[in-house]
Every structure is written in C-alpha cells, then in structure tokens.
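Hi L., both proteins are below.
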Amino acid sequence: MSRAKGSQTPYGWTTKKEFGSDVPPGKRALATELQRLCRLLALNADGNAPTQKQAADRLHVSDTSLSRYLSAEYLPDIGIVRDLHAIARTDAGGMEEAGITLTDLERLHSEAAAEQCGSCVKLREEVSALQQQAVESAVELSTVQAELGAVQKEGVILREGTAALKREVRELKAREVRTLKTSARRAIRAGQRSRLTARADAALLPVPPRKGDRQQSNPEKRAALTVARQAEALQNGGRQDGVLALLRHSAEVLSPAEAAALVCVLREGQLDELAGTLIHIYGRDNPDPHVMRAAAQLHQHGAPDDAAALLQAALSTRQGAP
C-alpha cells in the first residue's frame, strides 16, 4: 500500500479516538480492531489518505456514526463490521494483509455485544426500579391530593357555618334590641297611663301636696323601675351594648320627670355608672327645655349634683357644636 501524501498524519482520525473509562474490554478490543482496519483503506486518487467522511461514505454510514464506532461509544451492526473487513481486505491485498480473519472479527463483535447485553439488563433493572418509584410517587401524590381536597371541602363547610352563625348572632342582637325597645315603650306607656289616672283621681279628690315631699309619683317611679331592672339584668349578663341601646332609647322617649325618676332609681340601686351614662345621653340628645325640666325634677328629688351634671352635659354639647 503506497504512503499517503500531505503534511497531516495519514489516517489521523483513527488514532485520535479515546476510550472512556467505562468502556468494557470486549467493546474496547472491537473498536481497536476497527480503527486498524480503517487504516488499511486505499488512498484516494490524489495520493492522500481518505478522510473519516470518505470512509463513512464507503460503509454507507454517517461520519458521526463511524466516529462513535471507532471510539467504542456505539456498537456497530454486524453487517457494517463485515463490510469494513471486506473493503479493508480488498484494499490491503488479501486476508493476510488484513491481519484478522472475518471469523475472529465476528467473535470480537459477539463478545462486545454480550457485554452490552449485560449492561442493558442492568439498565432495564434500573429503569424498572425507577418506574416502580414513579408508580409509588403517583399513588402518594393521589393520596395527598385527596386529603387536600377533603381539607378544602371541610374549610368551605366551616366558612359557611361561620357565616351562618354570624348571621344568626346579628339577627339575635337585632331581635333583642327590638324586644328591649318594645319593653321600654310598654313601660313608658304604662307609666303614662298611670300618671293620667292619678291626675284624674287628683282632679276628683284634690289633695294638697305636702311641703318638702321629694318622692317621685308612683307612675313615674314604676316606669323608671322597669327600665332600671332591664338595664341591671343586661349589665349582669355582660351585655353592655344592650344596656347602652336601652339607655339611648329611654333618653329619646322618656319625659323629663321620668328621666329624672330613672336617674334616682339607678342611684338607689347603686348603678351609678348607668346613671351617669343616662345623664350624659339625656343632656346631649334632648332640647334645652327638656333638660331644664329634668334638672329641676332632680333638684326636687334631692339630687343637686345630678342636676348640675345634666346641665353641664347639655352645655358641653352645645359649646362643642359647630
């Protein structure tokens, strides 16, 4: 075989192939023999050694595939091995020049294939294990998703229950306020009827009032007692909002005399805080004539301090108004 021309190393593409550390010996031996056979390929017409692509074209494979066969990355088909042996033997001038029989070359291919099959078995086992892990993970994910769905459904039910409870509490509060207002109106109407009855009786049987008598008339006191008992019950039950609503409503509908009577009753029952709150609300929300009459009634009942506080509440409100 003639020596190739050119400055580059002839058949250099067959000697620059490096085997990886994980290449088994049988596959390494086959790739080494394939490299040697490629170096037996005939020179081109111009006297240069064939390139890797030219060699691949003669074997009817791609340049990349041939490179992988020679570097033991891939195992070539037995037909490609036989074609390379036949071409190399022809170009070299016979079997002896080829340096290896086709039988020996086929044996190297069989040994390399056996090694690869062993690797395939190991890979199949690894793939099977990974598939099993994937199935278990999918089952676990499905369980977690089901639990999450149950928790979300429970959350929806709890939110709906909470909203229903809030609505029920609002309705109960509104109902209680309406009940308190109705009770207060009934007590006030009862006091008014009793007062009218007392006035009618007084007109039929006039009795001069005793000098210095500071007690409230029975109708006014009965109305005040009714409101005071309701306020005390609400306060004992911790319903400060109900107490405040009751006092505000009472301040709106009570006459000056009834308001003064309610303050005195609250003081007698040692409900001083409620009495002070009523004084403030009545002085703030009622017109001056009513406030003046209520203050006069308080003076008559022997409560000058409460009368002064009532006038001061009214005065503070008027001065703070724009």
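That was the first. Here is the second:
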Amino acid sequence: MKRHCPGSVTRRQFVRTAGALVGGYSAALVAGCAKSQVQPPEQPPMAAPAGEDVPDLGMLDGRASVARAVAMAGADADGGPKVAVARSPRMWGDEHGVDPEVMATVIDGAMMWFTGTDSAEKAWGSLFNSDEKVGLKPNGLGGMELATAQALSGHVVDRLTGIGVRRENIIIWEQNAPFIANCGIPLDDVPWGVQAVLTSDTLGQRVQQGTIDQRLTGVVTQQVDAIINLPILKTHEMSGVTLSMKNHYGTIEEPWAYHWNFHENISDLASIPAIKDKTRLILCDMTHCIVDGGPSGLPHFFPGAVMVTNDMVAHDALGVAIIEEERRERGLPSLADWGKEVTYLQAAQERGVGVADMARIDARLMNFA
C-alpha cells in the first residue's frame, strides 16, 4: 500500500483551502490545519483575489526551466562545489500530498551522487557522526501551503537515526510556533521523538558580524555540531528571493530589523561562524514553490524536486537561476526588471561563505521515474 505524508491534503481539500485563503482566512487555516502539506490542485488557484491584474501563473512543472538553469553551471567546475537537483514526476501522489517514498528515493539518489557513495547509509555517514548533535532549520513562514514538507524533514530524521544519531540529539528550530507547525511539526505533538524549539525561546549570546548585531538561537551558537538547512525555493517581494541564506533570518531575534540592505545583511548573517562553519548540508524543498510574489502565498510552481549541496552560496546561485528561467518561461520580468535584483551572492562569496560563480559550480540534474 502506498504511504502518504500524515496530514497531507487532497486535491479537493487544496482547492477548498485556496478559496479560503483568497477570501482572507489564512490565519484560521494555519491554526486549524497546521500539519497539512499542499497538493497541486486540478485547477490552479489565483495568486491574488479575483479582479486584480495578475499573470496566469498556471501549473507548469518547470522541467524545461530547471534543466536550462542547471545547464548554465559547470563550464569551469573542476573542484567547485557540487549541487544536485533531483526530481521525479511521481513526487506528488494521485490523491495525497508529497509521497514520502518517492521523496526518500529522490533524496537518497541525490545524496549518493553528492557524496560519491553507493548507498544512502554511506552518504549520510560520510557527512555526520553518530555522536553529534544535529540542528534542522525548515521554513514555515509562507504558511502551511508553502512550508518545508513534513516528508522531507521526516526522511532526514530517518537517515540521521539510521546512522546512529540519537533522536534527542536532533533539534528542529523555527522562529515561532505557527511557522514550525506549518512544517508539520507542532510543538504540542512533535513527531519522530526529536526536539522542536523556537528561536524566541532559546536565544543565546549576542553576535556581531558586519551589519548584524543580534542574539541567535542557542541551538546554533551552543548546542549543535552540525546544521542541515531545509529551505523552500521561492521569491520575496523585498529581497527578490528567499533561499538557504535568508532562511537564517529565522535564527535571529529580530529578523524584521534586517529587511533592508539585503546585499550586506544576508551575506553578513550567512558568514557568522556558527552558521557558516556548522552548515553541513542544504536540502532544498522544490516540491511546491513560487516564482512571483512571496514570501507567502499559494504555491504555483511544482518542480517535484529537491536540491542538495553543502554550499549556501552555490545553492542560492542555482536557485536564483531556476527562478529566473521559470519567470522567463511564464513571461514575467527578470528579478532585476521587477526591481528585486539579487545582489547578495557576490557579497557572500567575497566573505568566504561559498561560490557564487555559476561556471565554478558542478551541478547535476538527476531524473527519477
């Protein structure tokens, strides 16, 4: 029997949810259906209330745009960071949300290529030790329809415990209770026997790094040995995009204080040693995304993929390329023409966070049945 993600919504439920959101009831839905994961609707929902002049964002799966973006990388990639984009047309079940079995297959295949190993156990064992404490940072800001899939986080937990990491040594954190619940990890019913905490409840020492002068969650500064970043691929009406580096706005006490000067703020945040040096893996949820508007809203781009790397800058560079290609596919202006040009990548490269030059990125597109 095919398994499905607990709390997943059906196609019919998604359409009903979409109608309520457009009607202005997202807060009630988040509270009542926090564990849900989105299912592509039979008819694409409007990205804005009826009557507004918005482009038809449709339900394109992005196979062409993702392939074009990956092909842009690697002209001079000898020794550069490896980035895998792995996808399957079966990522979404017929009647349920993300299929955990397909998600597991896609992640494991990407991890084996990324680590150069021949089994999932060896792949995870090459990155993490059984006696380590590992922190997971999902992204639930966008609401239950645009949050890191529970199936993705659950498979990460399965693989970590499979190599001997103790469940109590796995700590999942997010900015606040609604955000972490949107990821299918409610604080009053935490799955998998792991810890789940809030940034606001675990603030540690103040850190100063360039433009950043903030207290960070002590999970990052004091508790964990390694970080797994679990972002969503999406655009942002202020910063242009919100990917792996900006995901750490949920790691600091006052993220709203840094929604300006993104060129320096995002790159300075990512260069904080407790973040940069502990980042062991980025595993991006590309199952349900947005390429216009954001950071909240109904997803309208369903590549059915994950992106795997250990380089935050390379991840974000390829993510930006995918978004740009998909916007072009849909007849939308480039991020620069939208007035949201992404400028923090080069700044992050200059700060030693990672590689922004696409030519130096060894990217691989992997297709699974």
